[in-house]
Amino acid sequence: MANRGPAYGLSWEVQQRIDKQYDPELEQILTQWILAQCGGIQPPEPGKEKFQEWLKDGTVLCKLINSLYPKGQGPVANTDPSNKAFKQMEQISQFLRAAEQYGIAPTDIFQTVDLWEGKNMACVQRTLMNLGGLAVTKQDGLFVGDPNWFPKKSQENRRDFSKDKLKEGQNVIGLQMGTNRGASQKGMTGYGMPRQIL
Hints:
The protein has helices at 9-20, 24-38, 48-56, 59-67, 85-102, 112-116, 121-138, 163-169. It is mainly alpha-helical. α2 (24-38) crosses α7 (121-138) and α4 runs parallel beside α5. The longest helix has 18 residues, at 85-102.
């Protein structure tokens, strides 16, 4: 954690719960994808802190989002590494804006401090997971890696029915309302008649 002292009490408990959400296996999948997608990037050592350090300056993230666009059309112009904190945070912010333009929902995007200070790396993982899933779903040929690493996003499947078909559907009794099949009064005798014993 960047410039913060240790947490105590309720803050410590909350941070422990957030830390438990971090998935080391997902870290390996995301690392493999980023290395395959970007190419020519030095892989990080395993572990949450090393993964956070690898992504902290924002250059890897900016290269990742640029690689999901055709050559020369990436949304982030400058992906040069920097040691200055404000420059690193600016590059993370550029990645987040570009990810939102790419189609990630604003509710699925982490905050800059979640990554830069390492406060919520599980949220960073979820954002990258959503980005990978969206890249697989787009099927534009720019995704590199195993498509089975990410769940595919659902897509709209519009159906246009003719008026005749819609009218025909109004005559069908839905099973939620019960059914009139299987029950009949065939063979029943009228009320009050004695039983015939033969």
